[in-house]
Amino acid sequence: MRAWVLLSAVLWYLTGVGWQRNSERTEKGFIYGKPGHPVKVYVKLHHNSPVLVCMDFKRAEKETVDPTYLWVGPNEKPLTGSNRINITNTGKLTVKDFLEPLSGLYTCSFSYKTIKAETQEEKVVKQRYDFMIFAYREPDYSYQMAVRFTTKSCVGKYNDLLFRVLKKILDNLIFDLSCHIIEPSYKCHFVKVPKHGLIHELFIAFQVNPFAPGWKGTCNESIDCEDTTNHNILQARNRIEEFFRSQAYIFNHDLNKTLPAMHFVDHSFQIVRMDSCRPGFGKNEGLHSNCATCCVVCSPGTFSPDVDVTCQTCISVQIYGAKSCQ
Hints:
Ig-like domain-containing protein; Alpha-Beta Plaits; 3 domains; Immunoglobulin-like; 17 strands; 4-stranded mixed β-sheet; elongated; alpha+beta; 7-stranded mixed β-sheet
């Protein structure tokens, strides 16, 4: 039996009873340095970084004689090729399978020669380029929803019964997506409706959350499950929206305008997306304007112990991605 039919039956019964993101990417997909200005680069957790070029774009468009490149990582030690670090002979750097501790300042020292044609006199030119690389992940989505139902009275057991039945129907509707309804609540109010006088209405609020018991089983051995959980919560949102659209349709069309005393109030459905970040990550639109919607790794001096949206200050923290103040 479809969920909206089930709720309709209950209502009649009750009535009868009562990205990688960055700032300097070019059309080639490379990120070039800017002399005197650190370039911020954002790399999604467990993904490869974009290609960082050890020169600025103008220099790259010119001939370069005897170029040399030296990359230094966040630990202030020279970088060499490895399973995680790839440096080409033209000074291009890629970091593979990026993790929180790899965040930080990457510096490239670039030198080349200029040669005068008349005298063959050589001059060494040196330049430094700084790249600030931050790990990030997408926020975890949840949805705060609100609906309204008419009722006969603000007193009586049937309001609570409707509330519990509605929650159970919605939970069953999204159960296979490993989502569930949390923090449900309702209040009864008197509403003055034009041409109808005072009407009793239940103002119902609840949150749709993607972490129902057993949710990790949907990850299919994925290292990072946020893409799966966000996909599932979007499906859950769509199902619930369709459910309440069906409620409005059945009462406006199928029942020939004859409504039970307790029914869904058309156009009362409201929804707001709520973002949260995993521990060690947070949002900071001022600091990370090029990745404002991202959960960016907490920098040294900050931490995030839970699923908050911001990193908190802690001067003793000296690492990226701190989950506690120690």
